[in-house]
Amino acid sequence: MSYAIDETHDVKLESWVESANDPKTDFPIQNLPLATMVRATDDSDDEDDYTLSAVVAIGDMLLDLNRLSMSDLAPEDDGDWDFIAVDEIVAEGKWSSLRKKVQKLLLKDNPALRDHPQVNDIVIPRDDSMLSMPFIDPIGDYTDFYASLYHATNVGCMFRPDNPLLPNYKHIPIGYHGRASSIVPSGTEIQRPVGQQAPSEDGGLPNFGPCKLLDYEMEMGAIIGRGNELGEPIDIADAEDHLLGLCILNDWSARDLQKWEYVPLGPFLAKNFASTISPYIVTMEALAPFRSPAQERDAGDPQPLAYMDSDANRKGGGFDIKVEVYLSSAKMREEGMEPVHLSTGNMKDLYWTIGQMVTHHTVNGCNLQPGDLLGSGTISGPTRDARGSMLELTWDGDPFANPPISVPGTQRTPLVLPTGEERKFLADGDEVIMKAYCERDGFRRIGFGECRGIITAARSV
Question: Which of 151, 242, 360, 361 is catalytic?
Answer without folding.
Answer: 151
